[in-house]
Amino acid sequence: MYNQKNITQTVSILVFCVGLLLGNIAVAQTEFFNSKIPFSENQLSNFYSSISIDSSQVYLNANDYKIYAYDKKTGALNWSYYVANKSNNAPKLYQDNVFIEKHISEYVDKCIQLNVKTGDTIQTLSIVSINTQPVFKGNIMYCTAIDTETGGIVLAYDLKKNAVIWKKFIAHGVDKQPYYLKDKIIANAEENNWFELNYSGKLLDTKCKHKATLFAEDIKCIRNFRHLIHNQKELSVSYFDIDEVLKLKYTKDKTIVLGENKMLIINNKNKIENEVKLEEIVPLTENRVSNYTEILKAEANTVWLIYLDTLVIYDLKKNKTVKTFDLIQWNVHQAILEDNNLWLISRNDGQLVKLELDNRY
């Protein structure tokens, strides 16, 4: 828990460029919470850490191999749990459950299900880890995971029976987020190869416009693309370099794609509605250290993104930056935006930090 002495620290913000030219308004934010976990130098030298958030708590998988559950409003530590593991793969949440990978012994890791209110163990699942964001239909969890016998898989898991219903081997495709649509799943089978199956695990494509030449013998037909946009059309590969890591967020009628040096707004016709050069939003300076780039939120006319230690609010309708927040002193590792609060992990010291932002613009 924290008190008034250590929660109130107003941070000065650097103005990056002339406001009249770029429309930027640099403002201050307040550090409202800091986890103050006593990490050892050895724990921080091998840095892995992640956060998740629900309606009442924020969950930190910290560098000391523990899960911490903090009250979002008061900052009180509700519980902690030693999992003997730390990861950039954030804890997965569903209703009153949190799923996290636990190191059991030298060659054994398992995914465990905890009660979010108490931190008590509900059960140990038969899979090693949940590698991407799952979806749930009642007691059934659909996700990609590591399985001890098979390796990387996409599967359906019955949480009530604590058993795998069906699974498909996808190897390194396990780390690509599937598309969970109303009547089908589109999952990755390594590189840009994707295949379709229904929620019963049955492969759907039998016409084989594109035949698979994959390790997975039972996957015969694939589609070849990098990403799908909001209306399930394939994102044109010509927009970005072939090896460029992309971050996507969707609105009702747009897809926002964040690349290494530009942000594109793609419309329903799969055309570029607007292209934003990131260096014009946040000029590169020598003291910028963080490589963390993410779209935190996308609304009808506004995008919130982090680039080069800077949180940017960008107006899509007016095509200009309306506000920036300097995050350089925290060297962001991961971040989640909720209302006017930014929860982040600082790569400087591994701490979980909550910033209260001035949202007015």
Automatic annotation (TrEMBL):
<dbReference type="InterPro" id="IPR015943">
    <property type="entry name" value="WD40/YVTN_repeat-like_dom_sf"/>
</dbReference>
<dbReference type="InterPro" id="IPR018391">
    <property type="entry name" value="PQQ_b-propeller_rpt"/>
</dbReference>
<dbReference type="Pfam" id="PF13360">
    <property type="entry name" value="PQQ_2"/>
</dbReference>
<dbReference type="InterPro" id="IPR002372">
    <property type="entry name" value="PQQ_rpt_dom"/>
</dbReference>
<feature type="domain" description="Pyrrolo-quinoline quinone repeat">
    <location>
        <begin position="50"/>
        <end position="167"/>
    </location>
</feature>
<protein>
    <recommendedName>
        <fullName>Pyrrolo-quinoline quinone repeat domain-containing protein</fullName>
    </recommendedName>
</protein>
<dbReference type="InterPro" id="IPR011047">
    <property type="entry name" value="Quinoprotein_ADH-like_sf"/>
</dbReference>
